[in-house]
Amino acid sequence: MPLVSPLSPNHDKETQELAAFFNETLGFCPNSVLTMQHRPAISKAFINLNKAVMANEGRVTSALKRMIAWVSSNATGCRYCQAHAIRAAERYGAEQEQLDNIWEYRTHPTFSEAERAALDFSLAASQVPNGVDEGIKQRLYKHWNEGEIVEMLGVISLFGYLNRWNDSMGTSIEEGAVESGEKYLGKHGWETGKHA
Questions:
Q1: What is the per-residue pLDDT for 11?
Q2: Which residue intervals define the domain Carboxymuconolactone decarboxylase-like in the entry (predicted)?
Q3: CA 22/CA 28 separation, integer angstroms
């Protein structure tokens, strides 16, 4: 049961208009955003930050950004965000083989060295204490420029916020996200947990 109940999608008109972004990303407005509406300034600021972080201005694709989000969410243990990230990766064109083998990104041949560097960065940056070191930096700079690294860290940081928000809230997970979680992550033990 959630700590705070989500409000109706119609509660705040400005949030509702901004949240149309999630219909493309996920196919629904997330309960996390509906909960943030208890303070509409938070929901609006969050949606605008999300849109800015997920905008593609370099070679970091929408699919890779969502896989970065999944690795970050997996590292912190937020099942809600794991399911959302894998669903969004699917909707933004991640290769089927990558979705099926996301757990093995370090060794599976469907992932390039550039993708591995980005996903290892996500894992290191999401750990406490933070694991980003000179080795991570050198690997990133072999494949990515500074603007692209900023985009990646934007995703990791955004999901750091979401992982804390949703795990603390015990946000109820939506049916579509449950479906994606079970499809791609269930074979590795994913379940809704407290997000039921």
A1: 92
A2: 40-120
A3: 6
